[in-house]
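Action item from last meeting closed. Structure (265 res):
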């Protein structure tokens, strides 16, 4: 049994390889696409709208992620800016002190009070001054690198800020678009309901005509009943029991004489 399954699978794979680059492969893709469209057509609109809202809701994760990165960059920029300002102020103070020491060394002949607390020979003071100038120059280069880093982080912060705002705007626009779509769908549902329970004028007119014909038929039958002859007991009784004078009495202005009924045993 396993061999048969493997054989069928092998044949199917081989057929796929053969058809992959043929026109039949294109037909197969079209059929798969058609099936996908048919399945999509069977999904209720309400469910599609809920799915869209869920996808838009998922943007909150992207917003949170970008916001975290933005918060990190904002703090890094603030700290780095503070460090640059502090280091710049220190270098300015150090430069002022070195310039004063240079003036003192220039004015000295043999010995000089270096930085106001150490008395050394002029040559030694010059060497100390040169070392301090080298350190000050390095500090300036460090500040320059820090400033470039700050500029880069500022640009990153701006990009992240724009990304957060862009995602938020996209979410607002998509939410508004879905709201409009849902409102249109609700209006369509209302129109469908109104159309479903709306009377057709032609049908209504036909009902009215049928009602009129039926009423006419009833009136005809009622009129026909009124025109039917009276019963014989009231108007068609035999007059053989009356005399000629009694029969002619209505012509002479006298009341008509009713014939006598048959005697009952």
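Sequence:
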């Amino acid at each position: 049994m396993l061999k048969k399954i493997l054989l069928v699978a092998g044949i199917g794979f081989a057929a796929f390889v053969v058809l992959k680059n043929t026109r039949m492969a294109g037909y197969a893709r079209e059929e798969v696409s058609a099936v996908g469209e048919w399945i999509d057509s069977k999904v209720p609109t309400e469910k599609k709208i809920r799915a869209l809202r869920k996808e838009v809701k998922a943007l909150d994760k992207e917003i949170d992620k970008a916001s975290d990165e933005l918060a990190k960059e904002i703090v890094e920029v603030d700290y780095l800016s503070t460090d640059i300002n502090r280091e710049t102020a220190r270098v300015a103070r150090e430069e002022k002190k070195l310039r004063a020491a240079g003036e003192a060394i220039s004015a000295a002949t043999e010995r000089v009070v270096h930085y106001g607390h150490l008395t050394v020979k002029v040559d030694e003071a010059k060497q100390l001054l040169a070392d301090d100038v080298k350190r000050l120059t390095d500090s300036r280069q460090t500040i320059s690198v820090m400033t470039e880093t700050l500029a880069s982080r500022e640009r990153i912060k701006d990009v992240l800020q724009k990304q957060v705002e862009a995602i938020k705007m996209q979410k607002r626009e998509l939410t508004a678009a879905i709201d409009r779509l849902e409102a249109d769908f609700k209006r369509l549902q209302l129109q469908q309901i109104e159309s479903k329970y709306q009377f057709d004028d032609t049908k209504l007119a036909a009902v009215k005509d049928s009602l009129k014909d039926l009423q006419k038929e009833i009136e005809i039958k009622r009129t026909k009943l009124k025109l039917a002859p009276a019963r014989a007991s009231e108007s068609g009784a035999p007059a053989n029991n009356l005399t000629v004078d009694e029969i002619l009495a209505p012509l002479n202005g006298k009341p008509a004489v009713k014939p006598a009924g048959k005697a009952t045993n």
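Note appended to the action item: The beta strands are 111-114, 118-121.
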